[in-house]
Fold Poly(U)-binding-splicing factor.
Amino acid sequence: MGKIILNTEELPENYKRIVSNKKKNIEDLHNLYCQIVDYNTWVLPSTGLLPVLNEDLHAKNFSMHLLNKIYVGNLPYHTTKSDIHKMFEIFGPISSISLSVEGKSKLYSKKFGFVEFENPNAAVLAIKEMNTYEVDGKALKVGRPANFPSFIPDDIKNPDKRIIYVSNIHEFIDQNQLLSIFECVGKVEQLNLMLNKNRSCHMGIAFIKYQNIDSADLSVSLYNNLSVGGKILKVCKTVIKQKMPSKEIFQDTITKLPNEVIKIIADLNSKLNDKTENECLVLKNMIMVDDLDEDFINEIKLELKKYGEILELKIVVFQPTLLQYTILKEGDKKDVEVYCLFRNSESVNHCYRIMDGRYFGGRRIYAESIPKSEFNSI
């Protein structure tokens, strides 16, 4: 048997190459994982990590419907399709909802469902905002279904970063009013408020194209979760490459809200220059008086402490007829409002960004900041 002669001087270099190659493979896998997790960028590598031979098959079987679909798990057992629709309609028009149950026991069964939107932008917003949100004490699991495509056709990759998607627009806001609000952050090249099939009213969604990317970035950070006409706007960058929809015209002129739009524009211009200096945050629509107990008070204290030092916390039962504290009677249906006085305005701003528009026990929270003087008068 012949001898195998090794050149010991070459071994370290071989090891270095092996380690370098393995490190690169790990980095490639990590980058791919990040791309899959971040649904704003569906850009998959052309070679190396995906089987090239299967690309034609993936392309043939690709369906846009899969980009519009999300999985919703860990639902409370009593959840209905109507409940799901109310929770997710703020992100955009919904095509279909399906619900299923694993198991026969109400105590141990797992309820889950699928929501299909009419566009993929709504699906991305829903995943980002609703995953881990609590409904009746259960944290929702919101993500992509198992059959989400690993291959995205080239013609819809790389979305235009100047275009944003806006949902949950008030029915009485028209295109010109919406433009007045969104052009505060930069030059708008095109804005299209999408109409329903009979063109009598809009669908509550719009696409806006800015002149530059910086304006689009600022628009997303400023307008997402902004309250307009009592409805919380949802805003994100578009997630697929697309042309701006053609401009549509209403069949009838809708009612206008000029005074409110003027106020919103003034508030936005103020926010662009400075943040609120108020030290108190009010949380509304969290619970009804029937659900008010010591457990709720302790839970809300723990939650609010995450955002800064609390000086004082007030739980107010709001009765529209008296506008003051009242003696609680069984059967009364009163809203409970939470007033939190923080040490500084930075804590208020932080808490507002997190809590406004969030779900608690199936109810959508509305947050607003008020001055300390108003807090003291309660």
Observations:
- Residues 289 and 334 are 6 Å apart (CA to CA).
